[in-house]
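This part of the workshop introduces the protein records we will be handling. A record pairs a protein's sequence with a compact description of its fold. Comparing a sequence with its tokens is the quickest way to learn the format. The record below serves as our worked example for the rest of this section:
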Amino acid sequence: MNRIPVPILLTVLLTACVAGVTKAPLAAPSLTPSPTPSPTAAATLAVPSATSIPSLMPAPTVTPACEPIKIMPLGDSITYGEGIVSYGGYRNLLGALLESEGVLFDFVGSQRSGAESIADADNEGHSGWTTSYLRMGIDTQGWLETYQPHLILLHIGTNDLRDGHPLYAARDLSALLDDILTRLPDTQVIVARIIRTRWGTDAKHVDFNNAIPELVTAKGAQVSMVDMQDILSKGDLISLFHPSPRGYDKMAHAWMTAILALDLGKCAGP
């Protein structure tokens, strides 16, 4: 048997190993690190162009509508308009005067009279009623809470003086005003020194009317007075207690002067 020399054998073996390695190379790990996502890039949001942003216009300012000044004519048959009821009493001309001044108003009350002559016939006039009856009506009927007047035109006392003492009438008027102001502390009240009768201005009328200025002053800024004691003559009355249309018109002018003095404006604010 021929022997292969050792050097030659080693050479053959090494050659075979090299050939095997060449045929199946091992994958060497990459020394270059793979790129990682940038945190900054991942968090960045696409910003729309300026032209794509809708214009943000400020919301328009809405001014609340100006509401009518609610006026409650409060009193007895003179407020109701007795004499010639269809004329509407002093409310007939007073409404026209208010309109001519551009005042937005609304007469309010549970009664209606004079609808034949005036568009707004509402009032709180009650024939034959005294001051204490009015107060009772306010307590039981809830007129003030129902109509929430901004202004009350109060002419009352004629029936009180027919059978009562003027001091009692003044006392009842004071109590009525207290009741009104307790219920509606922001309401303006104009109190009339009441008109004469066809007999003239007798002692009872004078005493009652003379008590009103001090009484009104004591009630504070919400209560004012209009003097009607001497604005009518005998010829301005159609009956013992009730004015003719001409007499009611004189009352309307007196009310209008007193209303304008309050400087309430053209309407009630929001």
Notes: Residues 69-262 form a domain with the Rossmann fold fold (CATH 3.40.50.1110). The longest helix spans residues 6-23.
